[in-house]
Amino acid sequence: MSAIWKLTVPLLALFFAVASGLAIIGGPTNADPSEQEVKDALQYTVDHIIGWANTPFLRKLTRVGDIKQQVVVGMMYVLTVEMARTNCTKEEEETQCVVYTDPMIASPIRCNADVWKHPITEKYEMMKMACVA
């Protein structure tokens, strides 16, 4: 009888943890956008998108969607961001850049990015990125 309980109790605990919405150890969790590491991952993502975009115009972050984090060998961040074109080129000082309000000119994009933070070097690496207009 004790063998059945040794199996049943952990399974029930797992079931109730999942049913109550608790995160499973090692699974993705919501990231706190006010934490410095999350801000750094977000900035890395924005900089990467600006460099990747095939346009001479600077894009700015207009909206942050979901940010998830997952402990792997290091930390994996899964981010959704929206960016739009500004009135500045990439070479200009970006302090006075304004995002266009007309969607035809702003050409907004929505990007999903998986960013990995290396545990030893603490550098970020773009693992996967997809953007749509």
TrEMBL record:
* Residue ranges of the TM segments: none
List, alphabetically, the Gene3D superfamilies matched: 3.10.450.10
Coiled coil location: none
Keyword annotations for this protein?
A: Disulfide bond, Signal
Q: Which residues form the signal peptide?
A: 1-21
Q: What cellular component terms from Gene Ontology apply here?
A: cytoplasm; extracellular space; vesicle
GO molecular function term, any single one: cysteine-type endopeptidase inhibitor activity
InterPro entries named among the record's database cross-references: Cystatin_dom, Cystatin_sf
Tell me any Pfam family this protein matches. Answer: Cystatin
Residue ranges annotated for the Cystatin domain, each copy included = 23-132
The similarity annotation says: Belongs to the cystatin family.
Annotated PANTHER family:
CYSTATIN, CYSTATIN C (AMYLOID ANGIOPATHY AND CEREBRAL HEMORRHAGE)-RELATED
Give the protein name, as stated in the record: Cystatin domain-containing protein
Annotated source species: Anguilla anguilla (European freshwater eel)
Taxonomy of the source species: Eukaryota, Metazoa, Chordata, Craniata, Vertebrata
